[in-house]
């Protein structure tokens, strides 16, 4: 899975055309998930729930976590926000 915003950032950050082309071709094999209004609402609810427990995480990270929860996907990331989220939501993390 990839999300359109992540895809855009990745493509813009790549300088060399050769690796860029290979990455775009590889990502094109994956389904594109475009968040719907409900996803943003559920992510905001999750962020409030976390904040009430004294946990502050990035807005984009909460949206990504919520999309994983909605679609039953596991997440691979080194970002510590996701381990904090997983302690309070059924987010499945893949250990690196």
Write the layout of secondary structure elements.
Blueprint: E1 2-3, H1 4-13, H2 17-27, E2 32-33, H3 37-52, H4 59-71, E3 74-75, H5 80-86, E4 92-93
Parallel strand pairs: 1-2, 3-4
Helix pairs in contact: 3-4
Overview of the molecule:
There is one protein chain. It is built from 5 helices and 4 strands, in the order βααβααβαβ. With 96 residues, the protein is mostly helical. A two-stranded parallel sheet has the order 1-2. Helix 5 links the parallel strand 3 (74-75) and strand 4 (92-93). The model has no long low-confidence stretch (mean pLDDT 85).
Keywords:
96 residues, mainly alpha, Rossmann fold, two-stranded parallel sheet
Mean pLDDT comes to: 85
- How far is it from the N-terminal to the C-terminal residue, by CA? 18 Å
Series of H and E elements: EHHEHHEHE
Q: Which structural category do the helix and sheet elements fall into?
A: mainly alpha
Short summary:
The protein has helices at residues 4-13, 17-27, 37-52, 59-71, 80-86, and strands spanning 2-3, 32-33, 74-75, 92-93.
């Amino acid at each position: 899975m990839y999300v359109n915003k992540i895809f855009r950032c990745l493509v813009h950050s790549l300088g060399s055309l050769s690796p860029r082309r290979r990455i775009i071709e590889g990502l094109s094999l994956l389904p594109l998930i475009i968040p719907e209004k409900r996803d943003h609402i559920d992510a905001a609810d999750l962020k409030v729930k976390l904040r009430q427990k004294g946990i502050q995480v990035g807005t984009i990270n909460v949206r990504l976590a919520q999309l994983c929860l909605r679609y039953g996907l596991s997440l691979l990331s080194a970002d510590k926000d996701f381990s904090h989220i997983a302690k309070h939501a059924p987010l499945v993390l893949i250990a690196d």
